[in-house]
Amino acid sequence: MSNDHIARRVYLDNAATSWPKPEEVYAAVDRYQRELGAPAGRSGYAEATRVSQGIGAARRAVARMVGVDDAANVIFTCNGTDSLNLALHGLLREGDHVVTTVIEHNSVLRPLADEARCRSIEVTYVECDRWGVIDPDAIRAAIGPRTRLVAVSHASNVTGAVQPIADIGRIAHATGALLLCDAAQTLGHMPVDMQSLEVDLLASSGHKGLLGPLGTGVLALAPGIAEQLHSVRQGGTGTRSERPEQPDELPSKYESGNLNVPGILGLEAGVSYLLKRGLAEIEQHGAALAAKLLAGFAEIPGLRVLGPATAEARVPLVSIVLEGYDPQEIAIGLDAAHRVQVRAGLHCAPRMHEALGTQAGGGTVRFSLGPFNTAADVDVAVQAVAEIAESGASI
């Protein structure tokens, strides 16, 4: 490869955080920092009013994206982990039973472990098949009389496998349980509608598929859920300041302290970009690139792809193991010699790797695509992995 080619950064770590962002996102953050500089919901001067209007626009944009009728049911958080912590710690009560799965991220697993330790919550972990897909009937079998919540990722951050969330939602609701969906790997990559999926609580980061800055997250609530969901953080909201109790009104009930205004305004710009471009087009773009990546990897001896065989059954994310190589060595070699940037390791999903048999080997190498990746990026990545597989000279 020429030095010019090697110098070009090929970013394939969008499942961790998206890059680059739309120009509109950079402009929104910069405009806030340079021109507005005011808190949200705290003051009445012109710039503060513009900030509040911008936060409202962000809430409405997210609500439109996920199919929420009342934008007040969109809660802004620090990140996807914060959203999931609010959902789990705010909803569960002493002695509840939760059904979850082995595909989950530590942002679900660790809060549930804490709930089990501190409040005697019982947790059942449903297994996946060899492709990383959950059988809805296994969810049905795991639900019992004390099951308050089913918590399932919309797509695995290891295999990319999209889960049958609508089927799981129908099963949960037929038994009186609620459904929490971790949509960190799907929101922004494909159409997601809470009503059709029968999701009660939808959690996501804002900096991945939604193309916003780091430090942003959302928790969207179906009607009536707020009455059951306690706040887990109390403090100043700029509303009902004369009262010692946390306000019950949405979204103030869950948004204590100053919001990350530059992040949320950047998030609004990212979501607006996605809605304007069209989620169906973005989904097709990602699937085409994932199919090309899968086809390229299929030609490399000793390489194994984890997850579904087709791009249509996954988000644009492909994890691999290469016989004879440590995943971290591959990732380092890809960046050092080819400027291909990926994520290696367990991806904060240890039970998924136990189920796939990849934990002892250090996990997988994950290639995750975004809306600004191209077919040329995929070609560079496949060629780089092929060179490592052939000679090992890049490691």
Describe it for me?
- With 395 residues, the chain is of the alpha/beta class.
- The chain is 41% helix and 15% strand.
- The protein has helices at 3-7, 23-36, 46-66, 80-91, 106-119, 136-142, 165-174, 194-197, 261-277, 279-298, 327-338, 350-356, 375-391; strands at 10-11, 74-77, 97-101, 122-126, 147-153, 178-182, 201-205, 217-221, 303-306, 317-322, 340-341, 343-345, 364-368.
- The strands form three sheets. A seven-stranded mixed sheet has the order 2-8-7-6-5-3-4, sandwiched between helices.
SSE blueprint and pairings:
Layout: H1 3-7, E1 10-11, H2 23-36, H3 46-66, E2 74-77, H4 80-91, E3 97-101, H5 106-119, E4 122-126, H6 136-142, E5 147-153, H7 165-174, E6 178-182, H8 194-197, E7 201-205, E8 217-221, H9 261-277, H10 279-298, E9 303-306, E10 317-322, H11 327-338, E11 340-341, E12 343-345, H12 350-356, E13 364-368, H13 375-391
Parallel strand pairs: 1-11, 3-4, 3-5, 5-6, 6-7
Antiparallel strand pairs: 2-8, 7-8, 9-10, 10-13, 12-13
Helix pairs in contact: 2-9, 3-9, 4-5, 6-7, 10-13, 11-13
User: Percent of residues in beta strands?
Assistant: 5-15%
Low-pLDDT windows of residues: 1-6
Helix amount, in percent? Answer: 40-55%
Q: Largest sheet, described in full?
A: 7 strands, mixed
Span from first to last CA? 16 Å
The class by helix and strand makeup works out as alpha/beta
User: What series of H and E elements makes up the topology?
Assistant: HEHHEHEHEHEHEHEEHHEEHEEHEH
The coarse silhouette is: globular
Strand order of the largest sheet: 2-8-7-6-5-3-4
The total of helices stands at 13
Mean pLDDT, as a whole number? 95
Q: What is the CA-based Rg, rounded?
A: 21 Å
Give the total of beta strands: 13
